[in-house]
Structure formats: structure tokens, C-alpha cells
Design goal:
Layout lengths: L2 H14 L8 E2 L2 H8 L3 H13 L3 E4 L3 E4 L3 H23 L4 H18 L3 E5 L2 H15 L3 E5 H5 L10 E5 L3 H7 L6 E5 L1 E2 L1 H10 L6 E5 L5 H13 L4 E5 L5 H8 L4 E5 L3 H5 L9 E5 L2 E2 L1 H10 L1 H4 L2
Parallel strand pairs: 4-5, 4-6, 6-7, 9-10, 9-11, 11-12
Antiparallel strand pairs: 1-3, 2-3, 8-13
Length: 306
């Protein structure tokens, strides 16, 4: 093996085994060349090569140091050693490597279910589960649905949870509620307009039409409701539903011919007697912005490397 490759291999080995730790200084080019009896250009090229791959920091005028990024290599080497030891024990017990691999995969899946890394927070159970599943399908990882009431009560999230997602509507409250935890809180974009427009356009312009909304005060949504109702000549009245306010909901539903409601209101409607519901119900569904989810996935190391 050429002397340059030998020197590089020795330094790499020292970093991988932890003998050389992040921040440790290395000998100067002249010092190491003199110690090994090699040309200083050889040592200079070694340091340059290892600096290019992120294992060494070459600080002009200060010297050469082991890079902080080298910790990842040390961890990887330790993990590789752990897996090899465990695999050898499995083989000693008569377990083939392929069987061990299948067993390990099943254990990883069980671990993801019990100790999720990502959670999604919403105020109602239906959308909490729905959005968590949309993200899980997109990112191919377990996402735990969490109710906003859990955050309000300061109930514990799993210790393994490192990323909490929520909608723009709840982002300030969720971030404030988790300020004591070492977790990253990010907001996701919810598309409520596409499904809402479709439902309004399907509504008949005869009879009394009611719309349940959770977006009172959100001008963009209110503008869409007003514009579509005017364009289609709907006799429309709206109601902003708050969880638990079923008495007001019953009064609103009385006499309606058609009800337009978000899927998130399904649980509230199911608690009412069927005879109190309008003859026709048009349900509209909010969905997450997939382009933004993809952007988030590439910008968050935890998700990008999963």
C-alpha cells in the first residue's frame, strides 16, 4: 500500500475508534513528515484529502484538528461493531444472517410504533389521525397523532419524540406549550379551499343551505364562502362550531335542507339524533399541502435521513 494511503488509513482508524476525538490537534505537516521520514508534500496531501471529506479541519495559521463531523464516523463504527457482535451471537445460536435480518426489521417496526420520533397535533381526533396518516404515508415513517388538549395540559409526549408538526392555526400555542421540551416544532400548510369550493358548487340553489365552518375570522376562507354563495345564488347561512357547543349546533341545524360541513365535524354530528340532521349532507375534506411536506422532508435532517 502506498505510504500516503497508509497514513490516511491510520488517521481514519484513530478517528473511527475514538482514539482521535473531535477538536484534537494533529502534528504539523513538517512535524509528521519528519517523524515518519516522508516528504512533507505527502503529509500535506493526506491532510487535504481528509479535510475534503470532512474528517479534518485545516485552520490557516492555527494547525490541523479533528473535525466535529468525525463524531458521526465514530458512532457509525461503534454501531457497526455492535451489529457484528450481535450477529455473531445469533449465528452461534443457530440463527442465519437472513433470519436475523428479518427479525431485526420486525423489531425496528415495533420500536417505531412504541417510540415515535414525529408527532402531529390537532384540536380534534379525526383530523389529528387523518393528517398524521397523510404525513406517515408521504414520509414513510410512523407519525403519532396528538390532541391539542394534551399539549395544553402539559401531558408528556414520548421521550423519543424529536419533531412536532401542527397547522398554522395552532402553531403559536403548540410552540408555547412545548417550550420546556427539546423538540422542534414546525407548521404545515392545510388546503381547506379546494374541498370547500367543490362542496359549495354542488349545493342546490333552492332551499336553505347551512355551512359549518371552523375558520371564523380567516378572511381568505370567508371570502371564498361569500363569493361562491353569491355566484351560485345560495340561500346560505354559516355557523362556526366549537367543540362541545351542541345546543347551538342543534338550533343551527333546525330547518336546513342541506348541510355543508368539514369532515372534522363528523363526530359532533354523529352524537346528534338522525332526525335532527338535514336531509342532505355535503362533507368537505381538508388536506395537507404535499409540496410543502416534501420541502419539509428535505429540510429536516431527522426526516431526510430516515
Amino acid at each position: 500500500m502506498p505510504i500516503q494511503a497508509q497514513i490516511q488509513a491510520q488517521i481514519r482508524y484513530g478517528i473511527a475508534t475514538g482514539e482521535l476525538k473531535a477538536g484534537d490537534p494533529l502534528p504539523s505537516i513538517n512535524e509528521l513528515a519528519s517523524r515518519l521520514g516522508v516528504n512533507r508534500n505527502t503529509v500535506h496531501q493526506v491532510y487535504q484529502n481528509l479535510g475534503t471529506v470532512g474528517l479534518l479541519d485545516l485552520a490557516q495559521g492555527r494547525g490541523v484538528f479533528v473535525s466535529a463531523a468525525s463524531d458521526a464516523m465514530t458512532e457509525a463504527a461503534g454501531l457497526s461493531e455492535l451489529i457484528e457482535r450481535t450477529l455473531r451471537k445469533a449465528v452461534d445460536l443457530g440463527v442465519s444472517p437472513r433470519t436475523f435480518s428479518r427479525f431485526l426489521q420486525s423489531q425496528v417496526q415495533a420500536f417505531e410504533q412504541r417510540f415515535p420520533l414525529v408527532a402531529f397535533v390537532e384540536c380534534n381526533p379525526y383530523q389529528s389521525n387523518e393528517f398524521a396518516q397523510q404525513i406517515a404515508n408521504r414520509w414513510q415513517m410512523k407519525v403519532m397523532p396528538v390532541l391539542l388538549s394534551v399539549i395544553r395540559k402539559r401531558s408528556a409526549l414520548p421521550e423519543t419524540c424529536r419533531l412536532v408538526l401542527t397547522t398554522y392555526f395552532h402553531y403559536p400555542e403548540v410552540r408555547k406549550g412545548l417550550h420546556h421540551r427539546d423538540v422542534q416544532v414546525r407548521s404545515v400548510v392545510v388546503d381547506v379551499l379546494t374541498g370547500l369550493r367543490k362542496a359549495l358548487r354542488e349545493a342546490p340553489n333552492e332551499g336553505r343551505v347551512g355551512l359549518i365552518s371552523r375558520f371564523e375570522g380567516v378572511s381568505e376562507v370567508e371570502d371564498v364562502i361569500s363569493a361562491e354563495a353569491h355566484a351560485h345564488g345560495l340561500n346560505l347561512k354559516t355557523f362556526c362550531y366549537n367543540d362541545g357547543d351542541e345546543r347551538s349546533l342543534r338550533r343551527f341545524l333546525a330547518g336546513l335542507d342541506v348541510l355543508i360541513c368539514p369532515d372534522a365535524a363528523r363526530d359532533a354530528l354523529q352524537r346528534l339524533e338522525t332526525r335532527k340532521l338535514p336531509p342532505r349532507i355535503l362533507e368537505w375534506k381538508a388536506s395537507l399541502d404535499l409540496a410543502q411536506l416534501d420541502s419539509l422532508q428535505t429540510s429536516i435532517p431527522l426526516v431526510r435521513t430516515w
